[in-house]
Amino acid sequence: MAVTTSQSYDKTARQVLTGSSGIRRRHFQFSSVLVYIALAIAALVTIFPLAWMFVSSLKPGSEIATTPLGLDLHTLSFHNYTALLAAVPMWVGFQNTFIVLILQGGATMLFCPLAGFAFAKFQFRGKKFLFAFVLSTMMVPAIAMILPLLLEMGALNWVDTYQGLIAPGLVNAFAIFWTRQQIADVPNELLEAAKVDGCTPFGMYWRIVLPLMRPALAALAIMTFLGIYNDFVWPVIVTGSDSMQTLQVMLSNLATQINNSSPGTTGHDAWGMIMAASTVATLPVLVLFIALQRQFVSGMLAGSVKG
């Protein structure tokens, strides 16, 4: 009788545990569904402006004004793109932006990791003061530096030149801080072993540090590219001629340039060409992020888990 009672208790307990685990499983599945629904809505909200911009670039300007959310497949064409290339020299903006990207971005990716390596792994007099000074420059609003930089460029006769566009951004304080934090996680034992084997400081940086921080450098490269590519305030101030305009400055003056080159262009047609220009300007950013998205995510998460 006692054995039967014990078995019945065990059976009841298993039923209770099974039932509670089933409830938890259904609750977890329901929560997962809600999370996926929220993520899908967020993705649609994020993608919709880009999709609308691309579709609008294929629509006649009059249709953009009358039915901005409408879609008539029979009216889609590449007329806005051909008209844009005929009216505005977009290649000039791309060329100037590409030159700034190569020189300024290359200097940032070359010198800032070296400075971060020095701050992270070497001891020298004034190290803390210099690093604090670098960090303090990040606290100064960029708008407060525009007038002094413009006066400096004027004194050097660098206004409306590539030197004026590139020189103020050759060294980036955030890039030094970013690489210093990443390199600080590299074990000192690896560097000591390399030093015992006769490796020079630059050899340690090149052979040990750089391979270990590739994801972080990829993330820094993307952030540097976006910062230079989307920069508008400094280029619009330091450049004056159409031949020196970067892509973002050219986009801001696009309506005026379209009207000057094609006096008969209506406002509706201008909007169609502006959508086409915005689409063309967005493509390099999308291609870069799609190509390096894994490295970007890995680099952003580098150092977030300790242990």
Salient structural properties:
globular, 0% strand, 307 residues, mainly alpha, MetI-like fold, transmembrane
Report, as a whole number of angstroms, the end-to-end distance: 56 Å
> What is the string of helix and strand elements?
HHHHHHHHHHHHHHH
Mean pLDDT: 82
Kindly estimate the percentage of residues that lie in beta strands according to DSSP: under 5%
Biggest pleated-sheet summary: none
Overall spatial form: globular
Specify the helix fraction band: over 70%
Briefly note the structural class of the backbone: mainly alpha
Query: What is the CATH class designation of the largest domain?
Result: Mainly Alpha
Number of helices: 15
Superfamily (CATH H level) name of the largest domain: MetI-like
Integer tally of domains: 2
Describe what this molecule looks like in 3D.
The chain is built from 15 helices and no strands. 76% of the residues lie in helices and 0% in strands. It has two domains: 2-57; 86-301, MetI-like fold (Orthogonal Bundle). With 307 residues, it is mostly helical. The model has no long low-confidence stretch (mean pLDDT 82).
Q: How are the SSEs placed, and which strands pair?
A:
Layout: H1 2-57, H2 61-66, H3 79-87, H4 90-121, H5 127-137, H6 146-155, H7 162-166, H8 173-183, H9 188-196, H10 201-212, H11 214-229, H12 233-238, H13 247-252, H14 254-261, H15 267-301
Helix pairs in contact: 1-15, 3-15, 4-8, 4-11, 5-8, 8-11, 11-15, 14-15
Main location: membrane
Transmembrane segments: 33-55, 98-120, 129-150, 162-179, 216-237, 270-292
Membrane topology: Multi-pass membrane protein
